[in-house]
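for the writeup, i need someone to sanity check this before i put it in the appendix. the sequnce is what the collaborator sent (i think, or maybe the updated version? ugh). structure was predicted straight from it, no edits. if anything looks off just tell me and ill rerun, i have time this weekend
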Amino acid sequence: MISFEQPPVRRVASATLPTTYGEYTLHVYNDADEQEHVALTVGEVADGRPVLTRLHSECLTGDVFASQRCDCGEQLEWTLAHLQEAGRGALLYLRQEGRGIGLANKIRAYALQEQGLDTVDANLALGLPADRRDYRLAAEMLRDLGIHSVTLLTNNPQKIRGLERHGILVLERLPVPATPNCHNQFYLETKRRRMGHLE
């Protein structure tokens, strides 16, 4: 029987992107809801060898406004520099703001955190899961790029399980540095203590 199921993601545009870190190829993907996701690649990634890879979920406050409430912007900048230094790799920028709950809900959760809740309990108090992200799209994007096995840059074991659940082999995990400050120290501790994040 022929299946006419819509693919979960499709590549719609690619071009060279020069950055302050170096030159990337930028690929734009649309998901079934027409939401746009991005893959940045450097070097030859479709040669069958494992690829140094990071999955980065969108964080407007950290990535754009340099918020110190999280470590997202710092990790994004570190990854861009690290991939250029390696000369080969992929960064997937996934439109999953606030671990998938969206910007408005993330800011509502921030307000609850200001009242003393941690990041997990704030989400739960809003009737939301602690983490709503789905890594099927990431796996499909990697396959489209010709990537089937990765060395994953992450502190989050859920990303490893998520990729492997959808057929991408994670051969190794490498940590991504995060610098504690007075605004994010409790957040980083909560990720380790309650969400299983690794050092």
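Residues 58 and 97 are 5 Å apart (CA to CA). The chain has a mean pLDDT of 89.
thx in advance!!
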